[in-house]
Amino acid sequence: MIISVSGENGHDGDPVTPLEAAFAERACAQRAGTDVFIEGVNLALLGRVEQLRIRPTNASGTVDDDGPHEVRLEAADDGPRTGCTCPEGATGTFCRHAVAVALVATGSAGLAEDDEDDEDDGGAIEESSLFADDPVHAAMRVFLSRAPRAELVETLLDAADENDAVADALWEATVAWHGRQHGATPSA
Fold it and tell me: What is the rounded end-to-end Cα distance, in angstroms, of the chain?
């Protein structure tokens, strides 16, 4: 079964399966929450999804994350359903493993090569930009979003002590922040 989703102008929709419609990137992000979504992105980008099986209304796969976790996704008539063998997924929560399988199964993990037609839109962040980073940056993003604030401050100061470019960038950010705090406008 294939359904059609309208484009921005209501015409020329790309055919998508019920699975793709139910587990679109934006829907996954909203359902999982920011932290879990970022962890799922990280797993997808690191290639941790294995044994992927995709059908128009369901998908399943194994996610290697401190042991194998079996994931099942289904686009049911009453909405998307997920199951995972991890503790969170076993309770019906949309876990990071389900996010990873959903992103890879629907092609949202940046693994497709059809980005050639994208045009520059004046610096706006595109929805697909979440997946533009390489796996190392994705892993660092997860760390930075989870690190306690004091640990993050010490990590940045240590990096600035070791690298002049980091120190310069941090100093420029500090000066700009102080300027914003005191109502200064940036000079051109």
Answer: 55
The angle formed by the CA atoms of residues 11, 17 and 20, to the nearest 5 degrees, is: 95
- Report how far Cα 10 is from the mean position of its chain's Cα atoms: 27
Provide the CA 2 distance to its chain's centre, in angstroms: 26
**Contact predicate 69/77, CB 8 Å:** no
Query: What pLDDT score does 158 carry?
Result: 93
- Decide: 141 and 133 in contact? Cβ < 8 Å: yes
Q: What is the Cα 42 distance to its own chain's centre?
A: 7
Predicted confidence (pLDDT) at residue 36 exceeds the cutoff of 50: yes
Report which of 82, 87, 95, 93 is spatially closest to residue 43, judged by C-alpha positions. Answer: 95
In the chain, at which residue ranges do the beta strands (DSSP E only) sit? 3-5, 14-16, 49-54, 58-64, 68-76, 79-84
Q: Give the whole-angstrom CA distance, residue 86 versus residue 79.
A: 22
Let me know: does 99 contact 31? Beta carbons within 8 Å. Answer: no
pLDDT tens for 119-129 read 444 433 333 44
Q: Which two tokens stand for residue 140?
A: 């660092």
Spatial separation of the C-alpha atoms in residues 18 and 114, rounded to whole Å: 21
Residue 20, H or E segment = helix 18-22
Identify the residue whose tokens are 């970022």.
38
Other beta carbons within 10 Å of 99: 32
pTM: 0.57
